[in-house]
């Protein structure tokens, strides 16, 4: 086994840290300490990462050469400011937030950057990091290399991205992941209301995701909105208005958007 | 090889027929003829299914024991009426439309039903039918069995479903497949506008689909709308309003819906 050559403190014990810390540990990094506001989260992750924990930012270890901060975006400004006062002043500091600029560190600490793993993380599920793209940014080339090396321990897909590019990546990821998952949730709710098993949808969901490995999503589209099949759309809307009016609004708006893209596509491909 | 014991005419040569006809042929069914309004579609499918074609419904073959109708829902009423006049009056007739009732056949022909393969079909892509659930309905038990036998040739997942259940299945499938695919399209558009490759999203998209094999979609949800992270949501909306106002509306509506589901879930799980 490789000698541990990164000593890392994880600040935050949410979904990202809960997946990333054990993965880095398995690749020979030493997790020095974890911090979380709540004892329960801190303890759970500390157990996974086999390290001490704290719930007090002033008690953060000064023994690390890398501090990885994964907290709610709303808390990032405050946490980074307080962390900079208690952590090792010579170490490298990185946050993992898709839509927060690197400059959130500016003026607080000397060496800093971003390490954004573009994936959906849940504590209940281990993620295969070898398929997770990491987007890296740092305030020096040397530290960008260091962050690439750390991320490279768990994934072969390492890219550099500016704060602006990362912001668009994050918005796009919200559509591709969170909004997609919400479509699954709405599907689940509709089926459950009629005694139909969500399981029966999985082949369709899988094929929908597989298809776009081969076809651009605009070409892969099917269904009543693409065909502008107004009878079907009208019947679906009538049903939804009766039993779930909030779904009728979403159905209408997304169907119109599909149809608009289809029309624009036909016009430009003429 | 098994002796062909189903003689089938395909009426319509769209995405469903283009995938289903060759699959049934490979499992020993004989495709007697295909019909399409347009010569090009008819010819293409006839080549795939190694059979003659027609573009004239009055010239439909009387030699089949099963007629499978896959046409736009809007055209189904008219096509079934005209088909009933020229096809074999003793044969079984089935349509493949998710949201059309079985009764579209009533009064037109003696033996009829529905054979609904719940999948997204594109002509450009071969589908693995062994993972496609088929939902069957017929106006006699005997013919329901026959349709199950036909569908059973290509898939092990055969269910009976009433016209009402199928209607809900179809709405749910629109959310799980068409609307999901539209989220991919919007993601693609955002990335393309900023020189970022759609390919980099595929691991995230795949994991989002895989995750719900293990977790209910409501639990699998992540991201700013679930966390109700108003700073992120606000920044995303500001950016979208500037460069794609129609996406800002969708972003706002879907985010609100995610947050509502999250709140309801917290309340009920208290």
Automatic annotation (TrEMBL), chains A, B:
Residue span, Pyrroline-5-carboxylate reductase catalytic N-terminal domain: 8-83
Domain DUF2520: start-end pairs: 132-258
SUPFAM superfamilies: 6-phosphogluconate dehydrogenase C-terminal domain-like (SSF48179), NAD(P)-binding Rossmann-fold domains (SSF51735)
PANTHER family referenced in this protein's UniProt entry, alphabetically: CONSERVED HYPOTHETICAL ALANINE AND LEUCINE RICH PROTEIN
Official protein name in the record: DUF2520 domain-containing protein
Organism annotation: Bacteroides gallinaceum
């Amino acid at each position: 086994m490789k000698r541990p050559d990164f000593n890392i403190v994880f600040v935050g014990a949410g979904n990202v840290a809960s997946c990333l810390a054990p993965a880095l540990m398995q690749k020979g990094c030493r997790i020095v300490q974890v911090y979380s506001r709540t004892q329960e989260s801190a303890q759970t992750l500390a157990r996974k990462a086999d390290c001490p924990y704290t719930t007090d930012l002033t008690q953060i270890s000064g023994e690390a050469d890398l501090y990885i901060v994964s907290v709610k975006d709303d808390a990032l400004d405050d946490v980074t400011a307080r962390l900079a006062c208690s952590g090792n002043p010579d170490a490298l500091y990185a946050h993992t937030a898709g839509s927060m600029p690197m400059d959130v560190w500016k003026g607080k600490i000397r060496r800093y950057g971003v390490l954004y793993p573009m994936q959906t993380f849940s504590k209940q599920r281990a993620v295969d990091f070898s398929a997770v793209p990491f987007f890296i940014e740092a305030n020096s080339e040397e530290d960008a290399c260091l962050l690439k090396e750390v991320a490279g321990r768990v994934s072969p897909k390492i890219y550099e991205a500016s704060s602006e590019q990362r912001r668009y990546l994050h918005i796009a990821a919200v559509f591709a992941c969170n909004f997609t998952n919400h479509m699954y949730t709405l599907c689940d709710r509709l089926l459950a209301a009629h005694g139909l098993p969500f399981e029966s949808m999985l082949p369709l969901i899988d094929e929908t995701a597989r298809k776009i490995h081969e076809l651009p999503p605009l070409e892969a589209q099917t269904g009543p909105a693409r065909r502008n099949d107004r009878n079907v759309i009208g019947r679906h809307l009538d049903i939804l208005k009766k039993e779930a009016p909030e779904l009728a609004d979403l159905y209408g708006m997304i169907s119109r958007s599909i149809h608009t893209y289809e029309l624009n596509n036909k016009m430009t491909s003429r």
